[in-house]
Write a structure and sequence with these properties.
The protein is built from 7 helices and 7 strands. It has 194 residues and is of the alpha/beta class. The chain has a 7-stranded mixed sheet with strand order 3-2-1-4-5-6-7, with helices on both faces. Strand 2, helix 3 and strand 3 form a beta-alpha-beta unit. The structure holds 5-O-phosphono-beta-D-ribofuranosylamine (GRF).
Length: 194
């Protein structure tokens, strides 16, 4: 069985879309794959309860617990890696996971670590993507699924979803329509990689 581990920090709607698609499309029988764990760096991430509702094992590795370490980021990444590796993952899926990962972490999962970013990369890496797309007067926005490399929001583009910007769009209204497309695209990319 190919194990999928999903990392979240918040609402986990992309994670839920992948879990629901895996169940609806019977990935276990058809692709020999299953979402075996959802891991959060935040104990209060709403997505943890969603994962539990779907019968998925959840774990928390709180980044705040490593603040006093001499190298907090590396110490957190090492603990996270150990937790992930207990699940022997075929694929590690970042779904709204709001931590920058160290080069050692990224190298360890090279070729099996993917992310979804709410812009049409290479435009608008980083945060506030929808605000910046509106400020720039873009006529199209969207989201990108990409391989994760040590450079933030770079790495090979695997898929993109394009959403037209409407005349009266706010960052929130645009984000809502982009997110709806993320929920279609991300499960498709995961299934294709399996
Ligand atoms: C999504 O917009 C995703 O593109 C970005 O963070 C958001 C996560 O939303 N990386 P959710 O936690 O999947 O609901």
């Amino acid at each position: 069985m190919k194990n999928i581990v999903i990392l979240i920090s918040g609402s986990g709607s992309n994670m839920a879309a992948i879990v629901q698609t895996a169940q609806a499309e019977q990935w276990a029988q058809r692709l020999g794959a299953r979402v075996c764990a959802v891991i959060s760096n935040r104990p209060d991430a709403a997505g943890l309860a969603v994962a539990q509702f779907h019968g998925i094992a959840t774990e928390v590795v709180a980044h705040t617990a490593f603040a006093a370490e001499p190298h907090p980021r590396e110490a957190f990444d090492a603990a996270l890696m150990a937790t992930i590796d207990r699940h022997q993952p075929h694929l590690v899926v970042l779904a709204g996971f709001m931590r920058i990962l160290s080069p050692g972490f990224v190298a360890h999962y090279s070729g099996r670590l993917i992310n979804i970013h709410p812009s049409l990369l290479p435009a608008f890496t980083g945060l506030r993507t929808h605000e910046r797309a509106l400020e720039a007067g873009c006529k199209f926005a969207g989201a990108t699924v990409h391989q994760v490399t040590s450079e933030l929001d770079h790495g090979e583009i695997l898929a993109q979803a394009v959403v037209p910007v409407l005349a009266n769009d706010t960052a929130d209204s645009l984000a809502e329509r982009v997110l709806a497309q993320e929920h279609v695209m991300y499960p498709r990319v995961v299934a294709a990689l399996l």
